[in-house]
Amino acid sequence: MLPDADELAEVLVDLAVPHEDINELVRMGRRVVDDPELKRVLERSVEELVQDMGEVGSPVDLPELDWAAGPLQRCFPVYVFVAALPYTRAYHRARGVPDDVARRTLADLGRNMAVHRRRYGRAGVQAPWWLVHHFRGELYQLGRLQFERARHGQRTARTLAAAGLDAAPGTPCLNLHIPDFLGPLSPRACERSLALATEFFARYFPEEKYRAALCHSWLLDPQLKQYLPADSNIVRFQERFRVARADTEPADTEPVQFVFGDPELPVETLPRRSAVERAVGDHLRAGGHWYIGHGWFPL
Questions:
Q1: What is the mean pLDDT of residues 56-64?
Q2: Which of 60, 223, 249, 279 has the fewest CB atoms within 10 Å around its CB?
């Protein structure tokens, strides 16, 4: 189910896996193929991942690897995604998804590993559950932003229906995500992404009519406007959205994780090197809390 050593290295490069991790992943790949227990878990994982390929919202429960903690356990999801890659590529081809879009989308595996290394200083996959969306054809990288095929829930549907949109529960929507390590979140970059998304989904998923884009992120917490200038990229990004609902449960670790790389960092040690770092840290040090913002805009 895995390519041989030479081809595996090339596939890992295509998936933007950090170069310093490739040799060890190739070496451990032989063990995954040769060990009957590991091979069985790999086969079950791939079967679970690719069933109902392309179906939005289908539950996916990847088997947990009951293995001693170490690099193989941390990196095992890499082999699952590599083994599932032929199914993902077949789905992309059947839909006509351009090769460059597919490549940039699946390169999020490498980004995820870079996030893991930033936090822990070693190889691993930070959030395998997140990458399931990419390898099942549910999410696509289009310019600066990522767009996930999704469906309206009860609360959001009520909000949008009150605004006059045809958005019953279960109807299609696009969830918008902001990947790390991809430059500034400039208005121009966002406009380009939205233009690409409009064309992409109309061409390759014409049966799904998207009436709205949604975003659920700490970047939409309106308190950021108290700390950042009105012409900052984050504030201008916020201004694209209408409020879908307000959270009352603090989510202080979210900005700490995404800005500083580790949600467990002590608040008193957070650096103040940029306006965003100062905003996040100073607000927490003053006893404030951050919240996940929920926004939408019509398409």
A1: 90
A2: 249
